[in-house]
Amino acid sequence: MDDIRSIEAARDQVLEELRKIRSLRRGTINEQFFTDKRGDEPVRRGPYYVLSRREGGKTVSRRLKPGEDLEQARTDIAEHKRFSELCTRLEQLTENLGEKTRQEQGDEKKRRQPSKKTKS
């Protein structure tokens, strides 16, 4: 029973951490550079920051403004990573909880069942 209580406590902690996440974004931030060929020598321009993610089998990209927009996107992407890790942990704990619960119920049934030997 202590195992079940400790697993439930760990699950509650993970759920509380999930509740604290207020904003997240899927994707990655990429830097883009462009070569400006106007003039005698090409000039490299950038970096320009682009948030990209897969959606419906396609890549969706959006340019980010330097400063707050970029920093918020970085924070949100980090929160998405944390969200994914917490979901994996919740899944593991829930599987363990189910396993322990079934195991304990099986142990109880074994203790309760009368002997199969019957007197005739």
Task: Write down how many β-strands occur, each being a DSSP E stretch of 2 or more residues.
Answer: 3
Describe the largest sheet. Answer: 3 strands, antiparallel
Seen as an oligomer or otherwise, the chain set is single chain
Q: State which percent range the strand residues make up.
A: 15-25%
Instruction: Output the radius of gyration.
Output: 27 Å
Question: What is the number of domains?
Answer: 1
Mean of all residue-level pLDDT scores: 91
Estimate the helix proportion, in percent: 40-55%
Low-confidence regions: none
Helix and strand succession? HEEEH
Head-to-tail CA distance between termini: 39 Å
Provide the spatial order of strands within the biggest beta sheet: 1-2-3
Q: Which class of secondary structure composition applies to the elements?
A: alpha+beta
Write down the overall geometry: rod-shaped
Count the DSSP helices.
2
Structural account:
The protein has 120 residues and is of the alpha+beta class. It has helices spanning 2-20, 68-112, and strands spanning 28-36, 43-55, 58-64. It has a three-stranded antiparallel beta sheet, with helices on one face. Helix 1 (2-20) runs antiparallel to helix 2. It is rod-shaped, with a radius of gyration of 27 Å. 4% of the residues are buried. The model has no long low-confidence stretch (mean pLDDT 91).
